[in-house]
Amino acid sequence: MEREFGPARNVRRRRVASAIAVGAIATGLALGTTACGAGQTSQTANQASAVNGNSATVGPLALRDVAIVFPKSGDVAFANGGPLEMSFLISNTSPDVADKLESIEFANGDGKVTIDGPTEIPATKSLRAGTPGLLLTTSAEPEDPSEKRITVTITGAAKTITPGLTVPLTFDFQQAGETTLNVPVDAGPLLPRQDKARGVVEEDHGGGH
Fold first, then answer.
1. What is the DSSP string of 4-62?
2. In whole angstroms, what separates CA 81 from the centre of its chain?
3. CA-to-CA distance for 197 and 78, rounded, in angstroms?
């Protein structure tokens, strides 16, 4: 059996070491790329249509799961600006001071909001509206059988109500005052989310590619 000695053997060792190093770097790059991609998806891939309701706090009142739910009548209600139902939970955390929801209005005046039912919020009690859609509810607070659910209906907001976007609505309370929320519009299980309100045309500033 022949053995290599001297310069020839050293050159061979250096070549083997270089090959091993290159292989290790390539493997590391491959693993790094895989690790960076693990657990990540594109913004649009597997994007759920439903959205979580918004939340806010004004004084002792905690607004939770505030949203415009997907209409039972289908997407034609969006084109007509309603009627659409709102869903929310308002909890009064005060131990002794009652409050009342006076009104809900579009911050930009684009539509009308009608409230049907008593809107008093006794101390330590809650006021609920509508029935939240799929995935819209985030609150784990159990429902009190003594609390009545009201109906809040939106009409006359054709271009403002767009599935997947938000609508600024102002809640006015007798004691706590006002607060404005960007209320999400549920897209339901089928409609795609939009990136702008319907009817909005982007200006062409030139310089196209």
1. --HHHHHHHHHHHHHHHHHHHHHHHHHHHHHHHHTT---SSTT--S--PPEEEEETTEE
2. 21
3. 11
Give the strand pairing for 126-129 and 149-155. Answer: parallel
Structure tokens at 157: 């907001």
Cα distance between residue 159 and residue 168, in whole Å: 13
Measured in degrees and rounded to the nearest 5, phi and psi for residue 84 equal -130, 145
Q: Which of 147, 145, 165, 32 minimizes the C-alpha distance to 89?
A: 147
Which residues contact residue 131 at a Cβ distance below 8 angstroms, ignoring those fewer than 6 apart? 69, 85, 87, 149
Instruction: Give me the pLDDT at residue 115, please.
Output: 98
The answer to whether residues 172 and 90 touch, using CB atoms and an 8 Å cutoff, is: no
Q: How many alpha carbons fall within 13 Å on the CB side of residue 75?
A: 11
User: pLDDT tens track of the chain, all 209 residues?
Assistant: 545 545 555 545 555 445 444 444 444 434 343 334 333 323 333 333 345 789 999 999 999 999 999 888 788 899 899 999 999 999 999 999 999 999 999 999 889 999 999 999 999 999 999 987 654 455 556 667 777 799 999 999 988 898 889 999 999 999 999 999 999 998 876 544 445 554 544 455 555 54
Q: What size, in residues, is the chain? A: 209
Determine contact, residues 175/97, Cβ cutoff 8 Å: yes
Helix H or strand E encompassing 156: none
